[in-house]
Amino acid sequence: MVPPHMSGPRPKTCAACGRAIAPVELYYRFTLVLEGEQDVIGTAARPGTPDAEDELATLLKRLEAGSESAEELEAQVHWERGGSVCGACRAVLVRTLSAPPDVAEPH
After folding, report:
1. Sign of CA dihedral 93, 95, 96, 101
2. What global pTM score does this model have?
């Protein structure tokens, strides 16, 4: 019997197509992070002014009254995933993420 630490690399699965990647195959590791941002809230009142405080209070009330849980709200502003992809899926992903906006498919 071979000790667990001597059994070789673990099998990998392509995160895009689900195909098993053989230990001798070239694969690509990735990390994708999506972070929500918003440059302006409402009328962009100056911080510290009554208008800015009103906007923030209104936003907080809207969030508190919403049906989303704290976890759902967090998932809307921060999502990340990592894994491995095979060579064929890497080519598709790079092509998709590298396409200029005027060529990209609508969503």
Report:
1. positive
2. 0.59
Distance CA 65, CA 59 (A): 10
- Segment 30-53, tens digit of pLDDT: 999 999 887 766 555 566 666 777
Structural domain range at position 89: 69-99
Q: How many Cβ atoms from other residues are within 10 Å of residue 36's Cβ?
A: 11
CA 10 to chain centre: 25
**Residue 33 located in a structural domain:** no
Give the number of domains in the chain: 1
Q: Is residue 95 part of a domain?
A: yes
The answer to whether residue 41 is domain-embedded is: no
DSSP 8-state code for residue 4: G
Distance CA 61, CA 30 (A): 38
